[in-house]
Amino acid sequence: MPSSWIVARPTKADGRYRGKPRYRVVYRLAGAGSPHHYGGSFPTKAEALERKKWIDGELAGLRGREIATRLRERLELVRPVTLREVAAEWQTSRIDVAAGTRLTYATNLDRVLPTLGDRAPASITAGDVATLAATLHNEGAGLKRESIRKTLSTLAQVLDFAKITPNPARDDDVRLPANDAEEVNPPTADHVTAVHGAIAPAYRLAVIVLDATGMRVGELERLRWGDVDERAGRWRVSKASAKTRKGRWVPVPEIVLRRVLDAVPREDRNLDGQVLAGFDADAFRTALGRACKASGTPAFSPHDLRHRRATLWHLAGVPVAEAAGWLGHSPQEHLRTYAHVVLDRSEVDYRSLAAARAVLPQVLSLEAETAR
Q1: Per-residue pLDDT tens for 304-357?
Q2: How many CA atoms lie within 13 A of 284 on its CB side?
Q3: pTM for the structure as a whole
Q4: Residue 16 belongs to what domain range?
Q5: Among 67-71, 114-118, 271-275, which is the least confidently predicted range?
Q6: Are residues 17 and 60 both part of a single domain?
Q7: What is the domain count for the chain?
Q8: Buried b vs exposed e over 145-164: b needs ≥16 C-beta within 10 Å?
Q9: Are residues 251 and 150 in the same domain?
Q10: Mean per-residue pLDDT, 148-155
Q11: Angle in degrees, 0-180, between the axes of helices 302-315 and 320-327, rounded to the nearest 10
Q12: What is the CATH number of the domain that holds 151?
């Protein structure tokens, strides 16, 4: 039978989800198993009870299917709920994702809310979403396919949270631009060497580690001393740190691991402390860009070092399943991306890549790494 209820959700305070709760009203038009609908979010339980009381009256009067319309039409009985408000509550509820993912969500919503933020979620149509996608692609933002896809995915999750059915952000009429994937062109040994010499000294070890392991920069930021297996010459990317939420072990060349271990005496290592103390992924990206410019090197990102490592492993004959496991993606993704680089993309200087043992000779020995 139709019913309504109140759900209390924590809010963020002091960087943690432990603040005063907000009270969310939810209702359904039939029995158990029927879709849930969003009835509003309030800072006090008393306000939520008022909304619930009104919704119960509508359900008792057999006007349940008109509730969303009356909310959308801004009748005096209720205050309208906007996409901006729902998005804020959705962000607060996502206690299951890492800080980097929350930052991505915030970036995506910054693209959506200026256009649709003041609209009621139930009033948003597939046409509105398609227009948003076209605007993001054609106007000042000039976003590419993948950025638009991720933005619409975030919008779809917010609308799912608001119990909007069918979800207009998932409609087949919403089109994405043609695939404009960039050519994967990893930096050469000379590029990495030049940037290593130009980057601020505090970030040089990070360049070496990323180039040697293929880790994501966020994973390096969250690497802790408790994850280091010194005896086995490897360290762990924990489930909490991994983008895919799947933990894995990453082999570390002996000479690189020694550099990392020598930077902090064993007695000073806090198992919960960062391996690279004070390392910040965003600051590193900025420093890397400046180093590319200062050294006259074609700009590359931390993720390009990941492409480089995967390509080198492929060239060195590392089994696909093993390399994919070290990098934290599927063998299919590994072959689709990196085998294609090696076989089809003539602009990559394969001879330079294959001879990359010359990169950072004083600190990095690829001989030991590829012999695994």
Answers
A1: 999 888 888 887 788 889 999 999 988 888 887 766 565 444 444 444 444 444
A2: 26
A3: 0.57
A4: 3-80
A5: 67-71
A6: yes
A7: 3
A8: eebbebbbebbbbbbebbbb
A9: no
A10: 93
A11: 160
A12: 1.10.150
